[in-house]
Amino acid sequence: MSEIIKNRYDFVMLFEVENGNPNGDPDAGNMPRIDPETGYGIVTDVCLKRKIRNYVDTVKHGEDGYDIYIKERVPLNTSDNLAYAKYNLDDKNIKEEKKKDPDLDTKIRDFMCQKFYDIRTFGAVMTTFVKASLNCGQVRGPVQLTFARSVDPIVQNEITITRIAITTETDAENKKTEMGKKYIVPYALYRAEGFVSANLADKSTKFSEEDLQLLWNAIINMFELDHSAARGRMSVRELIVFKHDSILGNAPSYKLFDTVTVARINESAPARKYSDYTVDVEISSIPAGVTCIRMI
Prior knowledge:
Blueprint lengths: L8 E12 L3 E2 L5 E2 L7 E4 L1 H15 L16 H11 L7 H7 L3 H12 L1 H6 E5 L7 E6 L2 E3 L2 E6 L3 E7 L5 H6 L3 E19 L1 H8 L3 H13 L11 E12 L8 H5 L2 E5 L12 E5 L8 E5 L2
Antiparallel strand pairs: 1-10, 1-11, 2-3, 4-8, 5-6, 7-10, 8-10, 9-10, 11-14, 12-13
Helix pairs in contact: 1-8, 2-4
C-alpha cells in the first residue's frame, strides 16, 4: 500500500440518465426516486457506493487488499470469519484470547481494513445480532457521499411494454403477448457531493493515496462497467475535486460547493442532453489553501 493521504478533499460529481431509471424506489413500485415536495429526482448514497464497489471488484478482482465487504451473495459473517481465522479465534476461545491480548480488537479491525477496500473507504459496522460473538468492530470511513439530486425537476414516465414470452402454458393457449410496465426518466442531470477526510484516514482505516486514485477512477467509470437496460444510458459528466493544503482543510465544504454552478441554457424547453446545461466553477471565489481540479 502507498502512504496514507495527507490532504482533505471535497468533490462534486455530475451524472446523467437518458431514458432510464437511475434508482428505483421499492416503496413506490420501483419508480424513479423523487422528492414529493419539489419534484426533483433523488439517487441515494447507497446506490452510488454500490456502483463504486462494483467497479473496484471488477478491476481489482483477486488482488490482495481490494476485496469487497458489502457484496452480493456473500454473507457478512463469512467475511467476518476471515479475521477470526487469521488469529485462530472461535466462539470458545475469543473471550480468553482478548484477555491475553488487550490489542486483539484493534488487530481484528485493522485486518478488516487492510483486506477490504470498501471498509477502508466507507467504513462499516462489522457486528451482527445473529452471531454476537463474531464482532470485528465498527469503522468510520474517510469517504462519505450525499444523496444525488437532479438539477431540475424530473418527469417519471410509465412506459407500457409487451413481450412474446408467455409465463404459463394455460395463458399461451389464450394469448400471444403479455403486458408490462417500465419506468424511465427521459433525461436528467444529477449532482452529488462528497468528502474525503485525511484525519479519519490516518486515525482509522489507513486510506492511502493509491486508494484515493482508485476512488476517482471508480467514480468516473462507475456506470461504464455496469450498464443495464433498466437504467438506460448513464454517464458521469463531471468530477470536480477540491484539494486542501492541510489534513483538516482550509475552508468549509459549502463555500467550495457554492463555487460550482449548473444552469440550463434554454429555460423554455426541457433538457434532453448534457449540452443543454452549462457548468461553471468560480475560481476567484475559492479560498486560499484550496486547489480545484476538474478530473473530467
